[in-house]
Every structure is written in C-alpha cells, then in structure tokens.
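step: validate -> pass
step: tokenize input -> pass
step: predict -> running
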Amino acid sequence: MIEEVRAAGATSATASQMIGLREIRELLEGRMSLLQCISEIQQSTRRYAKRQLTWFRRQTNFLPLNLSLLTHNEAKILLRMLSERRKGSGVRAKG
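step: predict -> pass
step: emit ->
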C-alpha cells in the first residue's frame, strides 16, 4: 500500500478519505514512524468498523437470518441465490 500511495500523487476528496492514506503520506514525508503509522491505521480501521456496526444496528428494514438452522444443502442453495443476485440474474424482490 505504501508504494501505491507514493505512486498515486494527488487524489480526489473522496479518495483522500481512504483509511491509511493520510497516515502513509505522513510516513512518506518523514512525519511519522512506521510503527506509529501501522498503529494509527489499525485504530482508524477499528473506528470505521464500529461506525459500520452502529449503522447496521440502527437499520430497521433488515430481517435477521439464523443461518445455523439451515441444512448443508439449504446453505448451498442460499449461497448460490446470493451469488446470482450479485451478478444481477437472481430473483428480484417485489417492492
């Protein structure tokens, strides 16, 4: 990732929000040690994951699925359906 940041040069406002970009730029500019850079990227990642979990818990339109109740064959069918849906060829929900 360090070489990618070095090669990237200027980035858009959206791309500049990427986790680790600011820290790696500071590392490359000599304003941060490698250990500090890694530590700050790890902390930023944990904060982002926490925000994602908070957002997910607040969503009221998701139905919980207890996948542990599925048989092996049912799980395979579900995975195939999800894969097809991602490709755009699955059954669409009516809404």
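step: describe -> The mean pLDDT is 87.
step: cleanup -> pass
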